[in-house]
Amino acid sequence: MVLDDLGSSLRGALDGLRGKSRISEEDVQAVVKEIQRSLLQADADVDLVMELSDNIESRAVEEEPPSGTSARDWVLRIVYEELVELVGDSTEIPLEPQTIVLAGLQGAGKTTTAAKIAWWFSKKGLRPAVIQTDTWRPGAYEQAEQMAERAEVDFYGDPDSDDAVQIARDGLEATEDADVRIVDTAGRHALEDDLIDELEEIESVVDPDRNLLVLDAAIGQEAKEQARRFEGAVGINGVVITKLDGTAKGGGALVAVNETDSTIAFLGTGETVKDVERFEPSGFISRLLGMGDLQQLTERVERAMEETQEEDDWEPEDLMKGEFTLKDMRKQMEAMNKMGPLDQVMDMIPGLGGGMMDQLPDDAMDVTEERMRDFEVIMDSMTENELENPRQIGRSRTERIARGSGKPKDRIRELLEQHKMMERTLKQFQGMGDADMERMMKQMDQGDMGGGGMGGMGGNPFG
Questions:
Q1: Of the candidates 294, 271, 392, 399, the residue with the CA atom closest to the CA atom of residue 345
Q2: Residuewise pLDDT in 10s, the chain (463 residues)
Q3: In a 3-state reduction of DSSP, which class is residue 313?
Q4: Half-sphere exposure of 171 (CA within 13 A, CB side)
Q5: 154 vs 50, 174, 227, 294, 426, CA distance in Å?
Q6: Pairing label, strands 128-132, 238-242
Q7: Which strands make up the sheet holding 128-132, listed edge to edge?
Q8: Are 109 and 191 in contact, with CB atoms under 8 Å apart?
Q9: Is residue 322 within a helix (H) or strand (E), and if so which, with residue range?
Q10: Which of left, alpha, beta for 453 (phi over 0: left; psi -120 to 50: alpha)?
Q11: Do 177 and 70 form a contact (C-beta atoms < 8 A)?
Q12: % helix / strand / coil in the chain, to the nearest 5?
């Protein structure tokens, strides 16, 4: 999960209020103290933490909660609103032709980020191109070319030139048919004058629509000084925070942006070109507090379904009629794989992420992903007839499939049992009328499906 330790600590602080209908000043102070500890451990600025905790404490004590609202849900709402205010708005990124320059120190992840953002634009229906101008870092051209190839976007660079400004100029001409040009610039180990000078020259030639500063989440509070220097040199329209999947210091980078006049544009959540998200403050904080992020989840589901259908003529609507075969189950698994790591997906589902994830062993999701890989191998060893009619798989066929796949017979039985469970669930949906479906969706929207708490269906769980 993004900022897993911070989210777990915040949820733990709020769990102390479970079952209480009224809240005392002592209760609020205990929660605020835990929130302070959590944010300071995440390397957030002390003054900002104190301001945030003062706001939470005064609101929780002085404001009157709505009738029927539990103490925990009331404080949860206040914490949510104050954290959304703290991280600020999302950078405006219109879906139209534009040129973007990426700036940042070496090691921040600019080259990977360029390909990720290009891939993101391509999924929005635009034609992007990456222009690589880093002539300082060995291997920068090769890395950028490979990443652009993985993102399936246009690319320009000149490995034989050491003139970054001329490469930028030539790159604009070479990619004039692209809708979105993303210019990756060189970074250094510190904010040397030559980095700033070169960046200013490239910015002058490119005349970008927006400059994005790429920050490594692990940099913490040092992000403030970086943002100020780059802002003074070329002006920063937004920030991309990378490597949020593996650091507890990300809180420092997140709130540092709050102190610069910048906003956050994108989050890098993993190593592949698909591991990028548009920053949406309400959904991000909702996920951090264990309330899900259905907007981000919906985007991933739609993208996964589109990619699955591009590779085959399988239609997910077919699941709602006829028999549910192992072929259908396989397509669902492929779509799930395209959505990203299971722990990230779980975090986005109200009632399943957050607190429930805190109770699982650290390797629980790895085990689940391993089972899914085993299921794939097992299905590769089945005949077409067995995939279409899994009920005919008895003891002798199980033994044959086990030998062919190299997997234990128990894992084959797990697959068949999983298929039966999914088939039963789908049959329940198939028997539903429109009124039944509408009633169920309304229950989910109100958090009445077992998730509890304030998990709504939109980006803002509190409507």
A1: 294
A2: 334 556 666 667 677 777 666 778 888 888 888 888 877 777 777 888 888 889 988 998 888 877 777 777 788 888 888 888 888 888 999 999 999 999 988 888 999 999 999 999 999 999 999 999 999 888 999 999 999 999 999 999 999 999 999 999 999 999 999 999 999 999 876 667 778 888 999 999 999 999 999 988 877 667 777 777 788 888 888 999 888 765 445 566 666 676 567 788 998 888 889 889 898 888 777 776 665 555 555 565 556 556 655 555 555 455 545 577 888 778 777 766 666 655 555 555 554 444 444 555 554 444 466 788 899 899 999 999 999 899 899 999 999 999 999 999 999 999 998 888 877 766 665 555 555 545 544 544 444 433 344 444 345 555 5
A3: coil
A4: 32
A5: 47, 10, 29, 32, 42
A6: unpaired
A7: 154-156, 128-132, 180-184, 98-103, 210-216, 238-242, 264-268, 276-278
A8: no
A9: none
A10: left
A11: no
A12: 55, 10, 35
Q: Give the span between the Cα atoms of 258 and 48, in whole angstroms.
A: 9
What are the helix and strand counts (H, E) for the chain? Answer: 20, 8
106-138: buried (b, 16+ CB within 10 Å) or exposed (e) per residue? bebbbbbbbbbbbbbbbbeebebbbbbbbbbee
For residues 210-241, b (16+ Cβ closer than 10 Å) or e, as one string?
A: bbbbbbbbbbbbbbbebbbebbebbebbbbbb
- C-alpha–C-alpha distance, residues 285 and 90, integer Å: 13
Q: Are 217 and 270 in contact (CB under 8 A)?
A: no
- Could you tell me which residues are beta bridge partners of residue 185? none
Alpha carbon distance 291, 135 (integer Å): 45
Query: Hey, what are 443's tokens?
Result: 């229950």
User: Residue for token digits 């109770």?
Assistant: 359
Please identify which residue in the block is written with the tokens 């904080």: 285
CB atoms within 10 A of CB 409: 13
